[in-house]
Known about the structure:
- The complex is a heterotetramer.
- In chain B, 46% of the residues lie in helices and 12% in strands.
- Chain B is built from 14 helices and 8 strands.
- The longest helix of chain C is centred in the first third of the chain and has 39 residues, at 32-70.
- By secondary structure, chain C is mainly alpha-helical.
- In chain D, strand 6, helix 3 (148-159) and strand 7 (162-164) form a beta-alpha-beta unit.
- The chains are: A alpha/beta, B alpha+beta, C mainly alpha, D alpha/beta.
- Chains in contact: A-B, A-C, A-D, B-C, B-D, C-D.
- Chains B and D meet through helix 1, helix 3, helix 8, helix 10 and strand 6 of B and strand 3, strand 4 and helix 3 of D.
Amino acid sequence: MADTGENFAAFNSRALVEMVGGVTDEALKVTKIKQFLSVLAGRFFNWAGRKSLFTLHLGIKCCAIEMAAAATPRFDGDRFGVLFRSSPRQSDVLLVNGPVSKKFADKIVRLWEQMPEPKYCIAMGECAISGGPYFQSYNILEGVDTVIPVDVYIPGCPPRPEALIDGFGLLREKIIRIGGAPSSERESEKPLIVGDE
Amino acid sequence: MAQMWITMGPQHPMTHGLWTLRVKVDGETVVDTEAELGYIHRGVEKICESRDFTQVTPYCDRLCYVSAMTWANSYIYAAEDLLEADVPERAEYIRLISAELQRLASHLMWLGAFGPDIGNLTLMTWCMRDREMFLDLLQELGGSRMHYNYPRIGGVKRDIPVGFADRMIAKVKLFERRIDEYEMMLDESTIWLVRLQGVGYANAEEMVEAGVSGPNVRAAGVNYDVRWAHPYSVYDEVDWEPAVEKPTSVKGADCYDRYRVRMEEMRQSCRMVLDAIEKIPGGKNTNYANGDEMIYQKAPTRAPEGATGFSNYECTRGASQFYIQGGGDGRGKNPYRLSIRSPMFITIPFVAKTMIGYKVADIPAIMGSFDPCIGETDR
Amino acid sequence: MDDAYDLRGLIFDLVDKTIPPLLEDTPLEESSGQIAFGLATFAVVNIVFLMLFFSQFAILWIERKAVARMNDRRGATTALRSLWVGENGVTAGEWWNMLPFGLGKPVGAVNKWLNKKFGNRDEKFATVDRVNNRSWMGYSIFPGFFQNVADGMKFLLKEHMVPQRADKLIFEVSPFLIVSSTLLILGIIPLSSGIYATNPELSILYAIAIFGIAPIGVFFAGWSSNNKYTLIGGIRSAAQLTAYEIPLLLTLLSVAVLSGTFNIIDSVHFQHSAGAWNLFLMPLGAGLFLLTMIAEVERVPFDMPEAEAELVEGWWTEYGGMRFGMLFMAEYIRTYAACFLFTHFFLGGWHLPFQGLIGSIPVLGDLYLLIPGAVVVLLKAWLVFLLVFVWARFSLARIRTDQILEFGWRILLPLAVFQLVLSAVYRLYLFDPSAMDDGTYGGTSWDALGVPFLIPAITTVIWLGIFFLMLNDEDKSGNTERMFHVYTDKPAGTYVPGQE
Amino acid sequence: MGTTVTLSQNEAAANDCLAAINDRFSGSGVVASVERHSNAKKYAFVRITTPPQHWQALAKWLRFDLGVNYCSMVTGTHYPEGPQERGWEVAYHFLRQPITDQLPNTHTVYVAEKLDGRLIPMEFEVLIPLENNDSPTVPTVQHIWGGADWNEKETWDLVGIKFEGHKNMHRVLNPHDSPEGFHPLQKQHKIRYHDHNEMYDDAQGFGRKPADEGRIK
Lengths: 197, 379, 500, 217
């Protein structure tokens, strides 16, 4: 500590904290504990986050039936930890499975805002992607991505439950990369499309 | 506790879709209700005015997401009325079989969704498991799991595949035993009975007055079934009887009656398809090529201005009706106006008023027993 | 009979032998006894708590897999293998190579060898196996066990949200109220006579008192969320828990009357030394206990407070993230504690089934008696959980609130009083205190007229008879008209319009 | 099988209804006829055309004297280029269902062959042409058939035909905050991309030209 004109007689807690911090930093740098922690805990939490995707129990239209079928004996989404919760507070994934009408647009944004970060949005079916067969309608938005950022698109009208399961697989791939980044900070990450080679 | 309004929906497990039920409760008792629809109003009627008559079928498939085949058939009969098309008898039989298979799948979906309403989660997976059998059969016909685009004006898209008959008979016979299994699981459970019996009374005359139709009315002892009153396909040639329930109270049918009548309808559908597949003209194991005159007769594609077509069809939830006016697009290629009558659009406001006086916990039971489908409601 | 494996004694002995010599000639020498006691208690409490807590993952797993089987599904298959294998061909990063100093290299090598040697069964099924998390020659080990670990850890990641108009303080406090009071239950639950954290004299009363705290937290949580669903859920919960607390208390009182003690461990000892488990002496009490306990832990068919059909998720609708995770965990701990209490009160705790009979066979009996008490208790508790709680949850529907309350006040309460009187009669007139024996083979206090085990046998037979009579009666009296009366089985044409 | 209503019964009932209507309303502008569907079994139904001023009287008579107890659908149509007397049209569809009072534990199985008179199920179609102006108005039948209630709400919401005397009229399918006077099924409203219909003229898609590139979003 160089002589900078400070009063050395008085107990300088700030300097003490700095000194201790410096020593700790040095120790961390030498032992690379931070790296250990970030690698081990980061990998582990990433694994947990992508293996346990609770989906909001929201049924809009046809694809909702395929969503339900994906949870039933033949397809069994529970194998991959996909569960359906009724409360948006306890969900990670917003599965938009139908056309978003003008009346429902602000409601779905509200549901999205009620979900805690990190949260993901899957647009399932043509209606949610682009309006689908109803793209000419006076009451239907041209895709849910006009109001909510979408992570994975699952085309089909409706997509089969296998495609939905594949969509969750793609979402897990994406989570490997983005981890728990909040939804507002993934603008650069381009959305994935099921079946897009 | 003071009275308060609770808004159930649009995202709510009870709604089976996207609509809002506003309930005024006094403690646990429902005092007043209000139904709010239109969350997935897609303007199908408007879009169809710019589609030609063949292109309307996929939109009708997508009207109700659990009974696509019956809704497409319903439209096809209206279009055939408008365009004066003739249908080969084999095609009528195939339509009957496909519609009844769809009815089985739809009622299974209803039972599966009704289970969690009451709190029985296993019922859901069991019913969906059995529903897959019928989806597989319909997939053999239409090529898709849910929206088949199968009937054509003047026939059907393609014939039943070879071996379809045997597979169908085996599955339907298996399913007839499964119905007994469900009834054993449900009817012998006291909890199931105390939750359903005496809840959600709806009187026959009130319901007819309000415009409710289908199994919901037949549960109250009304012997009216479109298949019986205005038989449109070959329903007068196959072996079946309308399933009519005998209500136990002057107040009409309760949830249990509606549950029973749907179980019985499933039995009747099984009986019907088993009979129809034997009676089908041309033989059950022959496969005619696409467009063969046994299954398809070419129909005119244009309708003059002023011509109208109307169909009254027994869908899985009640009488669905189409009213088409020809002469759109200047050349008669499109419908000028296509109007759809959805049974659930009438039923949901009625059911909302039915709940008054019951407990909050009865709302899902009552609503589920009427089998709401919002796709057809909002159109 | 005391369990042969006395963990508590072992640790106390160890500490008593090591600590006082260490402290000799130090200022702490005088209080070395207290220090040793404190250290030993600390160790024992931690060990027992960790054992109870981590064995709880087993019941989560049991429920998930058993439910899947009942639903004709496969159930969760998540295995730890996906940690390094990744998803859909995107590897999760070879994290062992990212660790500094190459410390992870051996792990990587072992992994590589395992995957190569015992990985996917067939190259052709590589995708299938990866998707299904099959990790050992095409099979998975404990499939889905780590799903609950993943769920729990994910809750830690989630954002903490408080509704804007919620009562923030109470909203934040009530999960801790529920969780902390629930964890206190684990303190008095013995895994065997040698493995327990503490053993207060009146531990039965303590358990009931602790069970009674959580409803307050539930009501707070429901009220403070400022949501109508949670409010209704909280009120339903308060009403239901109050209604079922009293039959539960009376049932436990009848257990205490029969065994003559308010202590859990003593009551387990009593069952063995008197010669019969309480289950066979008071089947009615066992049934009452299970019913009230299902209601207390709010599971189907008594799960009205969180009925997801009409109240979205009941009183915890507004909780997300780790708060929700903790509430979820607390509910399972309560269930687990209920299973343990049933095991101790009615299934003879750590005593083996037919311990006297099988234990007296020369060689086999000795082997039989070697089974540790803690294992017996855990197995019994898991079995109770599987056969009662899980089975009921996924085969029954839920009862309406008014029906729940009516059932509680008008049926369970009188039955509980009746059971109390009955057990007093058993204790006073049928019990033979002189024949009690705390040995390996148990006593013969419940013999009568010279016939061994006459009283439990007769009691069980009578109650089973009543049960089956009521079961059959229900089917017959329950308005057969009502059951199957759709009229299509008769041909149309038998009736004329307007007439029956 | 004998379980269904036959064509001859249907024909007879339709003629009876026609005779009754002509008997009661002849000369008042109410025109009735028996028509046949040209699909399926070619069942007959009764088509009635009435001016709006006689509609409520006709409705009450249909409901209470002829036993038409079921209002199934209401369709409004807009003819902007139609004649002056038929710029709008409301089509009501009714069913006559055989209903009797139900006592507890009883039910009625109607035997199709034995049905006669009022009990034979019958379809009715009532057409009400309206004048070609900006505010088409028709008297409501909400109080006569409960089933007409929400159907009329929907017709007002989508087509914009006012039902005079309808209580509690509000939007049902369109959002509540839709602009005043927005009724999407009127013909002046076009659907999105309505001028790109050429790609739908060719069902197979062979001649699909990228003509609409740049114009579609």
